[in-house]
Predict the 3D structure of the following.
Amino acid sequence: MLFRLVRQILQATVYDVAIESPLEAAPRISQKINNNIRLKREDLQPVFSFKLRGAYNRISQLSEEQRKRGVICASAGNHAQGVALSGKKLGIRAIIVMPITTPDIKVQAVKRLGGEVVLHGDSFDIANRYAMQRAENEGLVFVPPYDDELVIAGQGTIANEILRQWREVDYIFVAVGGGGLISGIAAYFAEIAPHVKVIPVEYEESACLKAAFETNERVTLSHVGLFADGTAVARIGEIPFEILRKTKSDGTPIVEKDVVLVNTDEICAAVKDTFDETRSIVEPSGAMALAGIKKYVKAHQLEGKNIVSIVCGANMNFDRLRYIAERTELGERREAIYAVTIPEEKGAFLNFCRTLQGRNITEFNYRVNDNHTAQVFAGVSLKDGDTERKEILHTLETHYDVDDLSNDEVAKLHIRYLIGGHAQQNERLFRVEFPERPGALLTFLERLGPTHNITLFHYRNHGAAEGRVLVGLQSELNSHGEDDLIETLKNISYPYQEVTDNLGYKRFLK
């Protein structure tokens, strides 16, 4: 199978529409992590993503009869634009089914490329099922985003380019969604340059490949985080997983099985690193490979290696930049946040600042308790990352009751904006994901009904396809003496997680 796929890569027709993207040196990043880093700039493709390669390679090899019928796909992002441009180039009707939650900027981008946009469903899965049903009913050719050999071969042309551009490469880091990109790249290097290590990188909230490797079968994740929306896939592709389980001629796996997981803050920091290096703003998924490199290099103490980061896309809404800039401080460990109990007395704030030994305070939220103490939510600027963060924690612990909230997602997204007030009786706290569209809040409230009282609510737009909401609800018994709060939330059909035990909540709001 690998040999056949390499042959398909070498015969791929992608250059009718795609460019051979540059492999640019990254001197600032290289110096920072003591390795030779180069960026494979797929963000410079005509649709700002590698997806054009696979889509065009698949569509260009259709028969004349298939071309007359037209093509259809489901996508809210880069695959949609790749299919639309491919259809325009080849004179083929291209229907793109997008969830109704898709930001208008992406809808308009597809329309400008000649795609016929159909908005259907609240999620990709619903849109995808609809597209497949229309393909069957109308005789259209369905173009999958990753689960197709010709699509995979189109993406694999990137590997051929890299090897010609830098024969001394040691490692290649690849962001993983459905697996089309990494399976094409891994297959090529396994056959042509097996000494090169291909390292998969996944967002920790959509790690479907890691789950598949751990169970040795494809697993459907119960929940997928949408921050890195370009790789937000609940189940690895069937063909990609078949490829990724294969071995090289020496018996070693074609990709490293220990998948590198990166979080939101690490991705945001990598977005900034890429901007500092190239003055280009990439989407979260486009920065994942670099985030993975930074984490892997530190964990394995690599030095002097030749490493490629595939910058796979740059289709990002402008209004997400505020959120990314805020989270970058934490991802780069340039800020730490602490919850500290201090005495409610004159001079207490001054003494607290003296304890920090002149360090720069970036945020200070203060709330008086009933027992002559106060809770402080403090942000502190860092110069030496985790080492300094731990030193500050140790210093504060000698004087105060303190918790480090630097890795607490609820604190970073919500608590810092809610300091003040106290919990009501029987209050339970939940994180809920709303679809980012008009009417989402009204739908939530109508489905919640009048049974449960809302005691806390915080929402802040950060430009993603979903809104992260923190909501407090009073838990009460119904007429049958049962608490049906959880059942009510399940029926609303918005993803949720109970966080009543969250440290920040207990300190500042309970």
Remarks:
- The chain has four domains: 2-50+149-328, 53-142, 333-407, 421-508.
- The mean pLDDT is 89.
- The first helix runs from residue 2 to 10.
- The chain is about 40% helix and 20% strand.
